[in-house]
Amino acid sequence: MNSYDWVSTMDLNDPDEYEFVEVSFKNGSRKEFYKNPTRCITGDIVLVEANGGGYDIGTIALSGELVRLQLRKKDTPESKVNFTVIRKANERDLERLENKLTLERDAMLQSRAIARTLDLDIKIGDVEYQGDMKKATFFFTANGRVDFRELVKAYAKEFKVKIEMRQ
């Protein structure tokens, strides 16, 4: 279930701004917490540090006191939030985001075809490229255990990026 930040739509100034934000990726399919030294607000499209280096592009879903409540609800201590918001996205970043979304759709179709040619009992549900296009995460479902080492090699050869598989 998503949280809606109804406080951000009101004209209220918060004298004690909270230093963390919740950033949403792919229309809320994945959300993570980040430090916010740039003081971006809810609704801003931002560049954030990515796990394993590089950066990603997302939208700030929550800011302020609601983030403190979400951290507590998800049992995430502030000390575990290691990555930061780099800056607000510019026009070039938004173009890159559009390109990324198109690539993700094409990659999902190609990845399903590759899995079928290798006769694997696996269903690719989604593909998500990192904002800097250096890594792709393939989300899949499978009945039982699947040896997908050959699949990862085929994906790396086809898409020429670092491959991560998530079940």
Structure description:
The protein is α+β, with helices and mostly antiparallel strands. The protein is 28% helix and 31% strand. The protein has three helices and eight strands, in the order ββββαβαββαβ. The protein has helices at 65-73, 91-117, 149-159, and strands spanning 20-25, 30-35, 45-49, 55-63, 85-88, 122-129, 135-142, 162-166. The protein has a five-stranded antiparallel beta sheet. A three-stranded mixed beta sheet has the order 6-7-8. Helix 2 (91-117) crosses helix 3 (149-159). The longest helix has 27 residues, at 91-117. The two termini are 20 Å apart.
Instruction: Report strand order across the widest sheet.
Output: 2-1-4-3-5
Taken as a percent bin, the fraction of beta residues is 25-35%
Major sheet: 5 strands, antiparallel
Shape: elongated
Report the structural category: alpha+beta
Helices and strands, in order, run as EEEEHEHEEHE
- Point out poorly predicted stretches: none
Write down the Rg: 18 Å
Q: Figure out the total of helices.
A: 3
The pLDDT mean sits at 88
Helicity level: 25-40%
How many beta-strand runs? 8
Distance between the termini: 20 Å
